[in-house]
Amino acid sequence: MVRVLNRWRVAWSLLIVAAVPVTAPAAAPAADPAKGRAVFAAQCSLCHSNAPNGPVIMGPPLYGVVGRPAGSVRGFHYSQAMMSAGFAWTPDRLRAYLPAPRSYLPGVKMTYAGLKNPSQADDLIAYLATLH
Ligand code: HEC
Q1: Where residue 65 sits, what CATH number does that domain have?
Q2: Residue 110 and residue 119: Cα distance in Å, rounded?
Q3: 112 CB within 6 A, ligand 1
Q4: How many CB atoms lie within 10 A of CB 47?
Q5: Whole-angstrom Cα distance, residue 16 to residue 35?
Q6: Could you tell which of 105, 110, 115 is best to mutate to test the pocket of ligand 1, judged by most ligand atoms within 8 Å of the CB?
Q7: How many domains are there within the chain?
Q8: Is 25 inside a domain boundary?
Q9: For 34-77, how does the pLDDT look when each residue is reduced to its tens digit (9 = 90+)?
Q10: Which of 2, 39, 119, 131 is deepest in the core (most CB within 10 A)?
Q11: How many A from CA of 26 to the centre of ligand 1?
């Protein structure tokens, strides 16, 4: 009897899991790279160039950053923490890093408090992905 009940529970939770994706995308608006460009201008451009072969400002240029190994722009003097991060910048990594850079990678020298608004972060990451 217990077994049968458990089966029902499993069946119900599978049904619920299956039903959620049908409604979820409508609730989450798609990331907008045009809005992300404005976020970049307001929050990142003080320290980062977005131009191909752009200059070092306070930080390394971010053209092509999505897919690039962390700490890999030649001529930029990275912190040890950034050089030994050991990953490439994917949208998920950026989503984890940007809200609190120095908690995500202790020892990095990006003195930026963090981008706390998740939809602004999604817009910004969509914009960064266009820089190729
Ligand atoms: C006050 C200056 C400053 C601001 C503002 C700033 N950064 Fe940075 N950023 C840096 C510095 C300095 C580094 C290098 C960190 C290190 O080596 O520890 C860096 C590194 C990075 C890296 C790693 C790049 C690589 O080549 O591995 C990314 C990604 C990044 N910043 C994204 C952003 C984004 C996106 C914004 C805007 C939301 C932003 N930063 C705002 C100074 C800044």
Answers
A1: 1.10.760.10
A2: 22
A3: yes
A4: 15
A5: 34
A6: 110
A7: 1
A8: no
A9: 999 999 999 999 999 999 999 999 999 999 999 999 999 999 99
A10: 39
A11: 32
